[in-house]
Amino acid sequence: MLSGDEYFCSSARLHGVVAYLPLPHPLSCVYNGGSQSVVRGPPVVAPLRVSAFLLLVIGLVYSELMNSDIPRGVANSRKLHMVHGLFVGIAIVGRILHRLGICDQVRFIRWFVACFLTRLNPVPPGLRVKDLKFSEVPVRVYEPTTVCDGLRRGLVYIHGGGWVLGSIDSVDEVCRYIAKKTDTTVVSVGYRLAPEHRYPVQLDDCETAMCHFLSVAEAEFSVDSRRVAVGGDSTGANMATALCQRLARREDGHLPFPCAQVLIYPALQMADFNLPSYQQNHAVPILFRGRMAFYFLQYLNGDMSVCQDVLEGNHVPTELRPQYREWLSTSNLPPECLARGFSEPPSPEYDGEIYHIIKAGLEPEVSPLLADDEVIQKTPPTFILTCEYDVLRDDGILYKKRLMDLEKDVTWQHVMDGFHGMIHYFNQGWLAFPSAVRVMDSVVNYVKTL
């Protein structure tokens, strides 16, 4: 029987995004011609086929759920089980439809989430929301309408979703909450997604939107361009960090530098998938260990054949390991991070072919935790939020350590009962996790200080 990570990597190779087919009309995944069922034949046969299909999906969902592990300390654990089961079911149906050639798996998931699991509420009083384009990059701008003495602060927000999923709509409530609670103009960036677009397109889009906003902040939005921060969640936080480092390397002086970076459970490196948090939380929803490797590879080139090698660390050149070991050592983590157990993994066997396939992933713009000291030294004050039951916990804590060693201004918030993706369905009705309010209030309290 395959381990959870081996199962995910092998299923990704078999069923992952290997071709990007246009999504038919939503109903065409079930109906042909709008009224005629795809399944033809005697009336008794169709129900039998539907029943068999449902049993297959239920069996696969049950099998996937058995690979998950939700510790007792996780907040809202029952709801997390339910939501995880829902998304596993959506992914499995999408996978089946993809294999049948009916519609692409990822586009099916995006369509289903957008139509059934994302609620766009009426704009509340005190807020003005506009969909615009900044140099051809779609953005949504949230402007408080309350009277302000002088210029407002700004925040450019980058959504997560593994560079594959997520959208402006998926973080609409998050951005509304920040804008209204902090009296801040928030710009949400609708960057292009993988697998249609690969690195560095996503980061380029975020840079384009950021620079455009900085250039027009005062004239068009009454925002002080020297008080504009950048932030995001998960892979969005990855790009917020990489963007600050990219701008720090250039130092062209034409535009102000971001005043802060706001990082919510950031993904910051793909050199080591065997850190304590990856071991302890490898099967905790919503983000499994193998899935994080899958997302990095989709961002880079979509070559899933190297997934298991990346998880084992066979992609890291021998000459780079001493430097990475200094930055990623467990000795840099607080002792409590080892309390739930940790074992040193076997020494990986370097494979040059694997490195050649993923070498861009070890560059700082994909793994900003691996940037040189002189670059990190130039980054702005930082807010980092980590969750105990998250494979990415140690990425955030290790980055905090690097910043503190360089005497940078760091605010760290750790959610002891938190898990990855807590804010994903903030204020989304029955999908919302009550514990996510604490995460949002931590972000709000920090933004108010800028």
Low-confidence stretches: 10-42
What is the helix tally? Answer: 15
What global shape is seen? globular
Instruction: Indicate the structural class.
Output: alpha/beta
Keywords: Hydrolase, Membrane, Transmembrane, Transmembrane helix
Transmembrane segments: 44-62, 83-102
Organism: Scomber scombrus
Active site: 234, 390, 420
Question: In words, what does this structure look like?
Answer:
One of its GO terms (molecular function) is carboxylic ester hydrolase activity. Belongs to the 'GDXG' lipolytic enzyme family. The chain crosses the membrane at residues 44-62, 83-102. InterPro entries: AB_hydrolase_3, AB_hydrolase_fold, Arylacetamide_deacetylase, GDXG_lipolytic_enzyme. The active site is at 234, 390, 420. By secondary structure, the chain is α/β, with parallel strands linked by helices. It is 41% helix and 14% strand. The protein contains 15 helices and ten strands. The chain has helices at residues 4-15, 45-66, 77-99, 105-117, 172-182, 201-221, 235-250, 276-280, 289-300, 307-312, 321-328, 352-358, 373-376, 393-405, 436-447; strands at 31-32, 36-37, 127-134, 137-144, 152-158, 185-189, 223-233, 261-264, 382-389, 410-419. Strands 3-4-6-5-7-8-9-10 form an eight-stranded mixed sheet, sandwiched between helices. Helix 5 crosses helix 15. The longest helix is centred in the first third of the chain and has 23 residues, at 77-99. The N and C termini lie far apart (52 Å). The model is unreliable at 10-42 (pLDDT under 50).
